[in-house]
Amino acid sequence: VKNAEMYDNSIAIAIYDKEDKDANLICAKAADELLTISDITASFVLGNVGDRVCISGRSIGDVNVQLILEKLGGGGHITLAGAQVEGMTLEEVKQELINRINEYLVDIFNRVQVIEETSLRTSQFNDVSLKEMHTIEIIGKNSNVTPSDIARELMLTLGTITNSLNKLEAKGYIKRRRSKLDRRVVHLTLTKKGRLLDRLHHK
Hints:
Largest sheet: 6 strands, mixed
Radius of gyration: 23 Å
Mean pLDDT: 88
Shape: elongated
Order of helices and strands: EEHEEHEEHHHHEEH
Low-confidence stretches: none
Helix content: 40-55%
Strand order of the largest sheet: 1-2-3-4-6-5
């Protein structure tokens, strides 16, 4: 448990590297124990059982460990699952597990984006794209935001952000104002309409 590594800030992965006929049980107990640690939403513990590597997966329900371990030939259910992998070392199985976790998280992220897009399209704010919504979110949670700040956070070029801001201003969601200290600096704020959309999006 002490040697557990964190993945994506909330998923713990640990290795029990002793040759032990009870490795399966020890891995299961360690996976349970890791879930008692603050901020950990899922845990995976790997160990050697003869010529195979066993994996015990546990979750508080936010992460579906069954879906992840099914890709490694295992099974179980959303909060408790296991797998046994043959022909690979502990380190190889660990890397394979990380790859499967990454695939799972990317899939969840993509699904959330589709839901957000659909929600925006069917709302009264159907003139706003998901990228524009993320821009509104950044302006809403920070004061004195500049176009450069948004470009940096969204990892887009300043030109792309400027085009997006022009559209949002024309639609009445944002306002631009020049800094009193430096007239070259433009600060962005949300209009009443923009604040309403930001509040509804957070709900």
